[in-house]
Amino acid sequence: MPTERSREEVPPPHAVGKRPTDAPSHPDILKILLDEQALRSRTRELGAQISRDYAGRRLLVVGVLKGSLIFMADLLRAIGAEVDVHVDFVAVASYAGTASTGTIRVLLDLRENPEGRDVLVVEDIVDTGLTLTSLTETLRARRPRSLEVCTLLDKPDCRKIPFQPKYVGFKIPNEFVVGFGLDFDERYRQLPYVGVLRAS
What we know:
Blueprint lengths: L13 E2 L13 E6 L1 H18 L4 E8 L3 H10 L5 E13 L2 E10 L9 E9 L3 H11 L5 E9 L12 E5 L5 E2 L15 E4 L3
Parallel strand pairs: 1-8, 3-4, 3-6, 6-7, 7-8
Antiparallel strand pairs: 2-10, 4-5, 9-10
Helix pairs in contact: 1-2
């Protein structure tokens, strides 16, 4: 259900340049797309915007496991005390290797009841739009007061269905990226940057 808050202007996502920021520290990484400083800075900006949008409100922040975990932890620390934050998680499977399967499976559901509450879904990356569309439709059926999505990365060129998250960290090109929580078959999540995976 839209509210006045959902219509507030949100700063545009940062564009990612073509030049790598640093030499990668892992042999499987072709180039670093976003370094630690860029990630920290943009996460602080998003946290400040969310703090303004939800000041004085009770906000249920829902992390989509596992990819959002590192981003969400940093984002939570960037949200001010003026927001009454509650945290929950969902797990949704949609990938096998580097390709989206197009089939959505809910592996872990919410423990908190979102009915009548402001809900912010935190995701690592939006590409096809299939996962977030399915998840937000499921959550809207539970009648939250408002529902928005915050994603660290957005690949709009990969959309299979229209989907526009309200809060976007970075728009990136159509390359398979890992690190900062993102994985390839459960590897590379611990890398402190977002890098392009080298083709095998």
